[in-house]
Write the structure tokens for this entry.
Amino acid sequence: MASVRFFPSFTRIVVRNVDESHLKRAVWLFPLYLFLINLFVLPVAMAGLLYFPSGVDADTFVLTLPMAQHQQLIALLAYLGGLAAATGMVIVETIALATMICNDLLMPVLLRIAPVLLATRSNLSSLLLTIRRCAIVLILALAYGYFRFAGESYALVSIGLISFAAVAQFAPAVLGGLYWKGGTRNGAVAGLMAGFTIWMYTLLLPSFAKTGWLPAQFMQTGFFGIEFLHPLHLFGLGGFDVITHCLMWSMLANLCAYIAVSLLRAPNAGEARQANLFVSRGSQVLHPGGWSGGAQLSELIPLVSRFLGAERTQEAFDRYAQERGLPATTQLPADAQLVNFAESLLAGAIGSASARAMLASVVTEEALDMEEVMSILDEASQLRSYSREIEEKSRELSLATAELRHANQRLQELDQMKDNFVATVTHELRTPLTSIRLFSEILHNDPDMSLNERTRFLGIVVSETERLSRLINQILDLAKLESGQGEWTRTTVDVAELILDAVTTLTALAAERNIALNIDKIASGLVVVADRDRLMQVMQNLLSNAFKFVPPFGGIVNVSATGDEHQVRITVSDNGPGINPDEHELIFEKFHQSTGKRDSLTGKPKGTGLGLPISRQIVEHFGGRLWAETGTSESIGACFCFTLPRQASVEVT
């Protein structure tokens, strides 16, 4: 809706309207027009989606459907109609933009920097035409350049949505100016700059990067390689399409900048008067056009003639005199209504801002009386007082709301975690119990079973029993850690000695599976303060995980330890299939087990899925961090690293 309201065509049709009686018809006619022009799109779109399941651009359905049915005449008519409609849109929008550039950008600048040059020309209509024609050429050249360099990678609707997102940036300043008296010019400018900056970064630059005009790394790792500044996932926010993502961040930045900068200072006299005219329009009677003064007819007609031409100006004033019931133009009273009429004529040629500036040179405007001045000052004082009170109440309410929202979100998360935990534990417990029951029933029902079969089945029962016990112990251990009831002992731990002991305990298992268990590098003098048994549990969990995924023959597991003056880093890597980057955090969730970079149908690895969550709890308890990385070469699969604060000296606490 904001994009429709602030588009150039809407500006020409609605904003420049000088007869308010037309609004009664526009209230129902404009929505009806929008409904009717889109009504015929639905059957064509549905037919295209049904006839072409994939591979056909939806923008071309109106042509491809008749061509697919060999209806060349209908396809030709559709092409001609589409060409005419597209040409009409280009012409209307280009002329609208050229007029806006001339009236709202260039003419105010010329009136400021070259007023003497304009005063020496008796007829400025040719200058206006030249400016608009040059603007038309420039607009078409820029549009064609964007299409050639970036537009070919997007469908027509996508290019339109990019434009809509840009136009929507005018909404906070325009709507704020209509309903909020505290808004200032600096606030509006700051909001527009902030909004357009975010729009350019999150929408326009990615469209250039998609076509190769920007490095591909920009779309992969973000600005300066910072993932937090990824243009399509700004500040880590994901899950939205690019348009929604851009609009949310750009409008938020726009609105915050507009409000924050406006609150830095009170509105000045000009801003307060403008706010009083627009915000309080329904509660007061205004002079037509906002003027409260008069001018000489002999000065107004020559002024308007310089921009519209003498003949066209005379016809307009004659028609205006007839509408007011006067026989001749010379009998028009030089009142505010005449000034308003002259302003509307000039606004159509040079824009409202330039028209007001030109009329100010020949119109004598009445000064504000004391009552109006005091009214403005009283309203400004009340506004500041109310703003301070509302700001304080809003701050308190926001804090309370944030606390309640956080508490509610936490309760929902805990409830969901409880449900997931119960469901997962039930499933994990059912699996070994089912195996134990099945093989026990086989042994019970078949007394004539051979000794070898009986021994094998009993071995499976024992193995599943051990698995069940291990699962229950790990669940109890994790519950104690998460509830803060775990038993901890702190002592100085020599990292090199810890790693050697962990490797020694698993040497026999590594030899049995033909796995090469190597110690790459261990720096000397690495000491941490922690629970040695808990750290041994972490090392054994990481090494056992590596054993599960390396090849049965030729498997390699490497352990290394380095450190600096602040922390110790221990790394366990292997030459297995590795871990998908999307699973680097998921594997630390309870009962989640990665299958590595391989087919998920090859089977679930043995284990309970609790080793890594327990290990992370232990490491974080001692002020460290545990994470997973992708191998740095083809020979390196998964890589787990954890850090702990380093102790400069050996002390027992």
Notes: DSSP finds 24 helices and nine strands in the chain. The chain has a mean pLDDT of 76. The longest helix spans residues 370-445. The radius of gyration is 38 Å.
